[in-house]
Amino acid sequence: MRKYIFTLSCLLVFAFGSVLAQETETETKKVDKPVRSPFESGYLIDNQTTVIQPVNTLEFAIQHKFGTVENGHSDLWGLFASGANIRLGLNYVVANNVQIGLGVTKDKMTTDFNAKWTILEQTRNNTVPLALAVYGNIAIDGRDKDQFHDDFKSSNRLSSFAQVIVGRKFSDELSLQTGLSFSHYNLINEGMYHDKVGVHFNGRYKVSPQGSIIFNLDMPLDLGYLDTEADNYENPEPNFSFGYEISTSTHAFQIYMGNSSGLIQQDIMVNNHSKIDMDNFMIGFTITRLWNF
Fold it and tell me: pLDDT by residue (tens digit) across 210-236?
């Protein structure tokens, strides 16, 4: 009798284990992983993407814009022109899909502190069909106070930018993003806006395993009610850029042309008065390098 009870017990344990293993395997199969590389970098020309690198990744970024191409070969299409702008940035991923960073820009000796959080990642089986991220920065104008007016206050140096980004990888080749942003300057020149709402469109199309065609469009919206004193102000011009990206596992290199000299987003959205005209375009590049710890 004991022999039969022992045999029956073994069969029950084996059957229960098999069912549990099948359930675990089924649950494992149901896990819908994020899509691979919707973009190659957290930067896309002048804008951020929804991409954040793995935890404990340090990213170094060099962003550079030369002068306008209007003088042709006399200054090598802006490469030797005055008015070039450069930004050096460091970003660090402190937690899953959470990144903090800082940067220094030549124009107005601006220091910016920024953060990005990818709230949702698009998944391979479309359980989550879109990626959603939020990005923001606070920037400090580092020029000597003599560059400001007589009633200077420390708060006059501050500006800020906040953006919601929605993106989707439509295929192995095509990824697109759109976004809505709000920019603010505590101090502006006469005839300019303190606040500006804008929309953004950008994307990439891969033409080879390491190469992509990229574009970016920033559109400041003319919403005069944000600043009641700005009825006669000239709305900032849209910023349009296009270029080519080459990427590896640890590097991304983007070379492009665009009509804004700004390198922080609020500068582009508030201070760009260069129309989309070939003479106003300038050559620029962005280089990123990753280290994993």
Answer: 999 999 999 999 876 565 555 567 789
Three-state DSSP class for 282? strand
**Helix (H/G/I), strand (E/B), else coil: 139:** strand
Q: How far apart are CA 169 and CA 176, in angstroms?
A: 7
> CA-CA distances (angstroms) from residue 84 to 28, 68, 157, 217, 285?
53, 9, 22, 21, 12
Q: Give the three-class secondary structure for 8.
A: helix
Residue 11 has pLDDT above 80, yes or no: no
Domains and CATH numbers, the chain: 32-292 (2.40.160.40)
DSSP letters of 17-77? HHHHHHHHHHHHHH--PBPS-SSSSSEETTEE-S--PPTTEEEEEEEEEEEESTTGGGGTT
Q: Which residues pair with 245 in a beta bridge?
A: 212, 254
User: How many angstroms separate the CA atoms of 135 and 149, rounded?
Assistant: 31
The model's confidence at residue 129, banded by pLDDT at 50, 70 and 90, is very high
Look up residue 123 and give its DSSP letter: B
